[in-house]
Amino acid sequence: MTAQAPAEAPHDCPLCPRLVQFRRDNAAKFPDWHNAPVDSFGDPQARLLIIGLAPGLRGANRTARPFTGDWAGDLLYATLDRHGYSRGTYDSRPDDGLELVDAMITNAVRCVPPENKPTGPEATACRPFLTSRIAALPRLKAVLCLGKISHDNTLKALGYRLKDAAFGHAAQAELEGPNGPLQLFDSYHCSRYNTNTGRLTEAMFDAVFEDIGAYLG
Predict the structure, then answer these.
(1) Quick check: 14 and 116 in contact, CB under 8 A?
(2) Parallel, antiparallel, or unpaired for β 48-52 and 142-146?
(3) What is the DSSP letter of 65?
(4) pLDDT tens digit string along 88-116?
(5) What is the band of 4 on the pLDDT scale with cuts at 50, 70, 90?
(6) Residue 87, beta-bridge partner list
């Protein structure tokens, strides 16, 4: 029997040669940055797990906290605050004292990829960490996938086929997780590109969180 992967990737994870080299290149350019796999952040008793794509180069790869230090994080953390999933003030830095309440944030791929685009084999190599992260949350009831790549990798991490649940903004699907029933929620990624082009508005993002709140009660 294959041993289960840990929920977080090791700091010197060697699994993806291209991502390892990119980490090293960034460490040479920006020696004060994190430049390593980014751990999940949040409440270990969370009922909601938010799954992004991968760390941003100047966001989580710099700060070591998911969605911290870039526009996507500004929108995500403000939305979490409005819906009661955080305590404290988000200040775009990992030592701002912010805590998540009943929620956790992670990424499908834990290392920053060039041009924010992990390859299929890189996502596959990192998927055991996602599977273990989901399994390690005993009270988990809802998963929010930010973007189609996150959605696809989450389905695969749970042992489903892509045709079992199609991606769409505000779509939902009933799944079975390792600790019981799991409701899958989708949103377009809260990236600057999506918000600048109007593909995702703050009202659209809020509506997804309203759906999650109604489900969790």
Answers:
(1) no
(2) parallel
(3) S
(4) 999 999 999 999 999 999 999 999 999 99
(5) confident
(6) 99
Beta-carbon contacts of residue 108 (< 8 Å; ≥ 6 apart): 51, 52, 53, 54, 118, 123, 126, 127, 130, 149, 150, 153, 154, 157
Q: Which residue do the tokens 């593909």 mark?
A: 199
What pTM value is reported for the model? 0.96
State the residue for tokens 């685009």.
117
What residue ranges do the domains of the chain occupy? 17-216
Cβ proximity of 101 and 94 under 8 Å:
no
What is the CATH architecture assignment of 17-216? 3-Layer(aba) Sandwich (3.40)
CA 7 to CA 127: how far, in whole Å? 10
List the structure tokens of 28.
């040479």
Residues 6+ apart with CB under 8 A from 116: 53, 54, 56, 57
Distance of alpha carbon 2 from alpha carbon 28, whole angstroms: 36
Strand order in the sheet with 180-187: 41-42, 103-107, 48-52, 142-146, 180-187, 172-177
